[in-house]
Amino acid sequence: MEIRSPYLRAKVVVPAVMLLAMMGYLTLAIEMGTFFVGNKTGEAFFPLILGLLGIPLGAKILFDAVQEVREEHGGAEQKPFKVVSTPFILSIVSFAYIVAFYYIGLIPAMLGYVFLFMVFFDDEVRQLLRKFIYSVIVTAVIYLLYAVIFKVQFDKIFFGLIL
C-alpha cells in the first residue's frame, strides 16, 4: 500500500501509536486497582508511574515529529512510500504485550514479548529453542526483580493465577 501524505510516515505514525498505547496502558493501570498495599507498592504502582511519565513524553515526541515533517515537506510533492515499517511493527507488538499482560498475566505476556523481540531483531530466524530459553531466563530475572527486590504484588501472574 502506498500513501503520499508525509504525516503517515513512520516518523509520525509510530509516536502516535505509542502515545495511544501509553494512554491505554495508563487506563489499564488505573483499572488494576491498588497502588499501595500496606506500606508496599501494589501491582498498579509501576504501570501508573510509566503511564504518567510516558504520556507527556510521547506527546512531546509526536509534536516534534510533526514539526520536523512540516519543516521537511513544506508543500513539495511527495514520493510514495510503504506504510508498514519496523518501528510500526514494534509498536504493535508493544501494544499487544500491554493488552496480553492485562488478560493472561505477566509471565506469558512477557515471555512472548521478549521472544518476539529476539526473533525480530535476528537477521536470520534460527535457533528458536535457544531464543525461547533466553526468553525464559530474561522473564524470570525481570519477575524476580519486580516481585523480590521491588516487592510489587501482581494480580495476574500466569493466566489469572497468583504465584
Automatic annotation (TrEMBL):
Pfam families per record: TctB
Source organism superkingdom: Bacteria
Ranges of residues in domain DUF1468: 16-154
UniProt keyword annotations, A-Z: Membrane, Transmembrane, Transmembrane helix
InterPro entries: DUF1468
The protein, known as: DUF1468 domain-containing protein
Organism: Marispirochaeta aestuarii
Transmembrane segments: 12-38, 44-63, 88-120, 132-150
